[in-house]
């Protein structure tokens, strides 16, 4: 569903599929308080079908938790069976190995001038992604799925030529060629898997080499906090770091409790750094050019 006004149409389609395929009726519809669900047309249809409309509280669109528990069980079983380790990224900075960002870059370039029309350009961006050559697999996703090269949209207008080249009136010869194509597709997928595995290992090695050390703070440490206003109005005589402040408590999620003259407040760990009390510049020690500093 790309637009909210399609909610009523999609619901009727879903309702017909449930009644025809499962031979059951929908008794309760639980939704948020969006206008697409509260419209007179939608509510009139629910009353005629005898469906009870339940609305979740504002800002907390929670259901009964059944789907969440089932998804959690499915996720845990799949991780154990495939030896997948679930690692959490840092708070406020969910960085991975960059592959998701590379995938989204095609959509970003498509809607660079007008980001509001991203839903209209999604199909074009997906087509460009699926038909573009990917270094990790040594091919494009379209060929991995269908086992053949894709035809550009304008080629469908003149499809007689390439269609006649592929036609086979002999069923036996056509079946043998199809069998050969399936074997070639399996070989192509195996090669793509090996290439993708090597690429991911190289990518992981490069990514781990550029990781920054995790900042560890403990109770009683003195820290300096980055002044956010400096980012918007930098200047030579403006302070980049303010403080020092005392750490009251550090949490595993990344944020820290600090103590100031005005009281306590919480701050993200990436905005602070340890304060070096032995820094001669901050302690007001000045060295002359003719003298050598003593240690």
Automatic annotation (TrEMBL):
Residues 1-149 form the Integrase catalytic domain. Residues 53-66 have a biased composition (Polar residues). SUPFAM superfamilies: Ribonuclease H-like (SSF53098). GO terms for biological process: DNA integration. Gene3D superfamilies: Ribonuclease H-like superfamily/Ribonuclease H. PROSITE patterns: INTEGRASE. Residues 53-101 are annotated as: Disordered. One of its GO terms (molecular function) is nucleic acid binding. Residues 67-80 have a biased composition (Basic and acidic residues). This is Integrase catalytic domain-containing protein. It comes from Centaurea solstitialis (yellow star-thistle). The lineage of its organism: Eukaryota, Viridiplantae, Streptophyta, Embryophyta, Tracheophyta.
